[in-house]
Design a protein that fits this description.
This protein is mainly alpha-helical. It has 17 helices and no strands. It is elongated.
Length: 287
């Protein structure tokens, strides 16, 4: 990155923001004025949050013509405050061409807030970002923090990512399958989306403990008549975490059909399991 420069004086920044907003309101903003667009990017270093937000909103109104300037700054500007705001502005513009640079920032920027704002922008990109987000999850080279951001972005994208997710459930990567199950849980209530339900139920038998645990949590989003019969066998899963998640989901589903199986677990040898079972039974009997 280049050497950090001093941000414009507050009075200069205020004047620029007023001019930009006036031009946008009057419909005569010149998208070919590279100097003004660069000045707007530099003004994202302002110490006042509302001023930075004003420029972010303005970039959103300008749209894709601003993308090259924001992408250059996101990749190379020395000031993390500027890079953070660039990510937020790109989230408003939703230019698919931004995906590679946003992925690079998510993976490699030294500032955690820049990583988060890049993840937020990727989430707003919709389907265009899905293949790259899945690649992040598939790679063994990236940290769990980056994978967590990618998983969140996929879940946020939701139905626009559905077809990619349905294919990715067969990935050899445990991280991908976990993310798919978590994201698909948001789709189960959409009319006619039986495939989402089928994938969650299939994941209950996954060889990975972590995938089964994620699926056990996601089953709480299903209809109780469908979910409870598939959760009860998990009360005997070899993994305590899977058993714990199954108990929690049974409590959330509030179906009395689960009571006999839960009652039998009141004599479990593990104190945590017994306490969770008591809570789940209380949830079911509450109504």
């Amino acid at each position: 990155m280049v050497t950090e420069t001093q941000p414009p004086a507050p009075s200069e920044t205020d004047r620029l923001l007023a001019d930009v907003n006036s031009q946008l309101a009057e419909g005569n903003f010149n998208i070919t004025n590279a100097q003004q667009l660069k000045q707007m990017v530099e003004s994202l270093a302002d110490s006042r949050g509302m001023v930075r937000l004003g420029f972010v909103e303005a970039f959103g109104k300008i749209g894709k013509p601003a993308s090259p300037f924001l992408l250059e700054a996101l990749a190379n500007h020395p000031n993390p405050v500027v890079r953070r705001s660039c990510g937020k502005a790109l989230a408003k513009i939703r230019d698919p061409q931004a995906v590679p640079t946003l992925i690079n920032a998510l993976l490699n920027d030294e500032d955690t807030v820049v990583k988060s704002s890049s993840a937020g922008a990727l989430a707003r990109m919709g389907e265009a970002a899905v293949p790259k987000l899945i690649e992040v999850l598939e790679s063994a080279d990236y940290p769990q923090t980056a994978k967590g951001h990618a998983s969140w972005a996929l879940a946020f994208i939701g139905s626009d990512a559905a077809e990619h997710l349905y294919q990715a459930i067969h990935s050899e990567s445990e991280d991908v399958r976990m993310a798919v199950v978590g994201a698909i849980a948001n789709l189960v209530h959409e009319p006619g989306n039986d495939q989402a339900q089928e994938i969650i139920l299939l994941a209950l038998k996954d060889e990975s403990v972590n995938v089964r645990a994620e699926a056990a949590t996601s089953v709480s989003q299903l209809d109780p008549q469908l979910g409870v019969p598939h959760l009860i066998p998990l009360l005997e899963d070899p993994s305590q975490e899977v058993r714990r998640r199954a108990i929690l989901s049974l409590g959330k589903l509030k179906d009395e059909a689960a009571l006999p199986a839960l009652t039998a677990k009141l004599s479990d040898e593990r104190e945590e399991i017994r306490q969770l079972v008591k809570v789940a039974i209380a949830q079911i009997q509450k109504d």
